[in-house]
Amino acid sequence: MKKLTMIIMTMVLAISLLPVTSDAATKEMKVHFIDVGQGDAVLVQSPNGKNMLVDGGPKAAGSKVVSFLKEKGVKRLDYVVATHPDADHIGGLEAVLNAFPVTNFIDSGYVHTSQTYYNLLTLIDKKNIKFTVAKELDKLALDPQLITRVLYADEEAKDSNAATIVLKVTYNKVSFLLMGDADTTIEDYIRKKYDVKATVLKNGHHGSNTSSSAAFISNVKPSVGILSYGKNNSYGHPHAAIEARLKNVGAKTYKTPIHCNITVTTNGAKHSVTNSCGKGSTPIAKPSKPVAKPKPTKPVAKPTPVKPKPVPSKPVTKPVTQTNFKNCTELRKVYPNGVAKGHPAYQSKMDRDKDNWACER
Q1: What pTM was estimated for this model as a whole?
Q2: Which end of the chain is less enclosed by CB atoms within 10 A, N or C?
């Protein structure tokens, strides 16, 4: 009997030393870049079934975002991140918060005087959602298999784009860099301070030439570039130079007006890209090189924000028949995206945030 006991104990020890077979290594993560028109909305579905929504597009896209989340089986949002309070990033979040329970809301902390932002904050308070202002190097506890980290945030910025939250999400060898509306000064800041190399890059500011510098793209070296913008938008997004820079580093570019909803699926070693329009879907079998955790080096001063200026172009709506409007509601019927200073319809009284762009959404 004593010998039998010893044999059993030996077997138990031997079994305990065997490699543990786990689904964790093969669990898939999905990151969806939702087609919301002129705006941003990104759904991250972690290997363990957690959900994080980064921005919600403009208000007009709110119902579309809600429908998309439901289609993907979302019942609860563990995190909602508002990269900054521009309407094309937070407008749709009111519909989202009314449709799903939300555990954590992460905000840039930049105070915007718009009614859209006020309504959102009021709803967060009403629903008693945990509200946190992002700080550089914050780590979001979305999933223990992921490293989800804030590489940039500045609530004291001089304008909303300069306050934008930059996130890096890493799943083993595959990583995602979500740039919000960060401009080249922010890009320079983070590339000098952190490891910005990433498999997938959601380019800053919808492909504007205020972002995605050649130096930054060269540092990131993405396999996939994502450009989220509205078809025939009045800002001229995206700029051809940005697409050329992505091509120069070997990145495959996907654009929401062409590819619609874009999904990157990964098991942490390999990744593939599909889209709801069925154009240019590309499985990528080659594993990415390991991505190191971001490590601070020498202190780098916060960049002095450079105000991104929309690129004026001819409006895609009606020709100019009226240049004087009682309020923004009336102006947006003719110019849905607002008007820049110098436009015949621009009136300083409707430029509430004094950024030389009146009635922007």
Answers
A1: 0.73
A2: N
- Using CA atoms, how far apart are residues 128 and 132, in angstroms rounded to an integer? 12
Q: Could you report the per-residue pLDDT of 89-124, keeping only the tens digit for each?
A: 999 999 999 999 999 999 999 998 899 999 999 999
pLDDT digits (tens, 9 = 90+) for 259-274: 999 999 999 999 999 9
Burial of 297 (0-12, 13-18, 19+ CB in 10 A): exposed
> Residue 331 and residue 48: Cα distance in Å, rounded?
47
- Could you tell me where the DSSP H helices lie in the chain? 2-16, 62-71, 87-90, 93-99, 115-126, 184-193, 214-220, 240-248, 256-259, 328-334
CB neighbours of residue 70 within 10 Å: 12
Full DSSP string of 91-159: TTHHHHHHHS-EEEEEE-------HHHHHHHHHHHHTT-EEEE--TT-B--S-TT-EEEEEE--TT-SS
pLDDT in tens, 195-227: 999 999 999 988 888 999 999 999 999 999 999
- State the virtual CA torsion across 355, 359, 360, 361 in degrees, nearest 10: 140
Average predicted confidence (pLDDT) for the chain: 84
